[in-house]
Structures are given as structure tokens and as C-alpha cells.
Write a structure and sequence with these properties.
It is built from 14 helices and 5 strands. The radius of gyration is 22 Å and the shape is elongated. It has 327 residues and is mainly alpha-helical.
């Protein structure tokens, strides 16, 4: 029985952090067991913010690939490839851009959000405005059945579906209209209580050393109402506890909750427990990451093999597109 195909990608805009791991990578690991998965490094997309420093794209692409492999993505179970090495992405993007009304792109909520959220970068470029068109090309080239997204991101996939329907209204049916594969993404804030993000400098990275991680945990914001050691705390509003839910045992969590609420344990002690749990939980990734960093040729071979496989599919889809348009 043919497995359904999944397509997803990540921008190489910097090293991956725990938010990326628990928000996407962990889900990818599960999906590779049951679906035909294509995961790509979206390096052309990263140019929307790195266009002034494009030399960083190659460096970050390698870092992302290492983080993927260290996290457990298995090239025997999924196809890992690099977007820019397959020119069919750019060509189909150009073709689709000819039929997409500009107002469709301007009403994309992410377009306005990013312009205010990203500081120090002019986000008013055509490339950023048109990124949903390139995203659509990414998806339809591989005839993906499903695209994994969080519930809040599901509306973003709808513009791709609209573009596909518009193409089919002009020409014959070529593409699959993908559905959202809704993922339950845990809420994981950064060290300062805001969303974990590279731009906020509040992230714990998969590339951090054990010492880095321990120091970052010590700097984490806790319950804002707990000003003194003797003040009772509330795990439900403390920035530490979501990490405990992921990394600490049920017994440790059940010990911390009443001790925090009655001030029997201080935030410093709670951070020490979290440090022990998190380092133990992250140890396999940290160890595998060092192994892959030391073997860049092996990483490149994995990406090259995945790119070759993906390009064969992309080339066939692009030809079908041109045939449908009688180009």
C-alpha cells in the first residue's frame, strides 16, 4: 500500500533551538516511520532575511543538516535535500507567480507580522511578499499529500491551495491539493519568557555545550510574583515548568509542584533539578551532533543523495506543468 507523502522544510537562518526541535523536528521523527517524508533545507527562503549576508546561508545549511541528523532524522527513512540545488523550485515559482493576484499575497497575515517582528532587516522585498508562491512550488513539485503544521499555521497553507485551484482553473489538473497535518506543538518560551527565537537571543540551541545549557538555565525567568525565597510560587505561570514537563520525570514534577507552592523549594534548587533532567534528556543529541560535525563529508553525501532523488521527482512534475500549459 502506497504511503502518503509529506513535505516540510526549515529555513537555515541560524542554529536550531529547542523550540524548533519540540515544535517541528520531534514530529518529523514520528512521521518518518509511517509516511514517505521529504524534508528540505529552505535556503532560498532564508534569503528573505539574510539577503545582506548570503555567505551565512551555506554555513547555516550545514548546521541545520547536522541538527537534523543528530536529532534522529534517518536518511534511510526520509529524503533530506537542499532547495537551491534543485532549480525546478525557482522555475515553477516563476510560472506560478504569473497567475497569483498581488492582493492574495498582501493579505497573508505573516507578511504584516514579520515586517513588525523582524528588526534591522527591510522586509518590504518582493521575495518576502512572494514567499507563499515559492512555498507552493516547494509543496506541489513533490505532489505532497500532507504538510505538517501547528493549528495556528493551518491558514497559511490555504493560500497554496488557492494557488493550486487557480492553476487548475486555467489549465488541466497537475498538482495535488495538500492537506494540513495538524501537529500538537507544545508551548515553549525562551529564557526571558517570550517566544523562543534567535532574534530575541533567548534560545537554548541544539549546538550548545553542556556548560552553555547549564548557564542559560540559571538565567531563566521564573514566577514573576515570587520576589523572595520565602514567597510561594506557582508552577503554572513559571517559565521553568514547561521544560520540567518535557525533561523531568513524573516523580520529580510531583515533588516540585507542592514544594514550589509552599516555598519549600527555591527557584535556584528548581533550576538545578531542571539542569540535571535537561542535560540527561539532551545527551543523545549532543553526542550525535559532535559525531556529525566531525564528519562533514558524510553529511554532504547524505544531502547529495537526497537531492538527487528529490530532483528526479521535481523534474517530472515541472514537465507535466509545462505540458498542461502547452509551453
Amino acid at each position: 500500500m502506497k504511503r502518503k507523502r509529506i513535505l516540510s522544510g526549515m529555513q537555515p537562518s541560524g542554529p536550531l533551538h529547542l523550540g524548533n526541535y519540540h515544535g517541528a523536528l520531534k514530529n518529523w521523527l514520528a512521521l518518518q516511520e509511517d509516511y514517505e517524508c521529504f524534508y528540505f533545507i529552505a535556503d532560498w527562503h532564508s534569503l528573505t532575511t539574510l539577503y545582506e549576508n548570503p555567505q551565512l546561508v551555506r554555513k547555516y545549511s550545514f548546521e541545520v543538516a547536522v541538527d537534523w541528523l543528530a536529532s534522529g532524522l534517518d536518511p534511510e527513512k526520509c529524503t533530506l535535500f537542499v532547495q537551491s540545488r534543485i532549480p525546478e523550485h525557482a522555475e515553477l515559482h516563476l510560472i506560478l507567480s504569473m497567475i497569483v493576484p498581488v492582493p492574495w499575497l498582501e493579505r497573508n497575515p505573516t507578511y504584516k507580522e514579520k515586517q513588525t517582528e523582524v528588526k534591522g532587516v527591510d522586509m518590504s522585498s518582493y521575495g518576502f511578499l512572494g514567499y507563499p508562491v515559492l512555498q507552493t512550488a516547494d509543496i506541489v513539485l513533490y505532489k505532497a499529500d500532507l504538510v505538517p503544521v501547528g493549528i495556528d499555521q493551518a491558514p497559511h497553507l490555504e493560500i497554496s491551495r488557492e494557488i493550486i485551484r487557480r492553476f487548475h482553473s486555467f489549465y488541466k489538473k497537475v498538482f495535488i491539493e495538500p492537506e494540513a497535518k495538524i501537529s500538537d506543538i507544545p508551548k515553549l518560551n525562551g529564557l526571558d519568557g517570550r517566544k523562543m527565537s534567535k532574534s530575541y537571543s533567548n534560545a537554548i540551541y541544539l549546538s550548545d555545550t553542556e556548560k552553555d545549557i547549564a548557564q542559560k538555565i540559571q538565567s531563566m525567568f521564573t514566577d514573576p510574583a515570587r520576589l523572595r525565597r520565602t514567597d510561594p510560587g506557582d508552577p503554572d505561570v513559571c517559565n521553568l515548568f514547561p521544560f520540567h514537563k518535557i525533561y523531568s520525570s513524573r516523580e520529580t514534577q510531583e515533588e516540585i509542584i507542592p514544594a514550589c507552592r509552599t516555598a519549600q523549594i527555591g527557584c535556584g534548587d528548581c533550576k538545578k533539578k531542571l539542569t540535571q533532567s535537561m542535560l540527561a534528556g539532551m545527551a543523545p543529541i549532543l553526542e550525535r551532533r559532535q559525531e556529525f560535525v566531525a564528519k562533514p563529508r558524510e553529511v554532504e553525501e547524505i544531502l547529495a543523495a537526497g537531492t538527487k532523488k528529490a530532483q528526479a521527482i521535481a523534474r517530472a512534475t515541472l514537465q507535466q506543468t509545462k505540458d498542461a500549459m502547452k509551453l
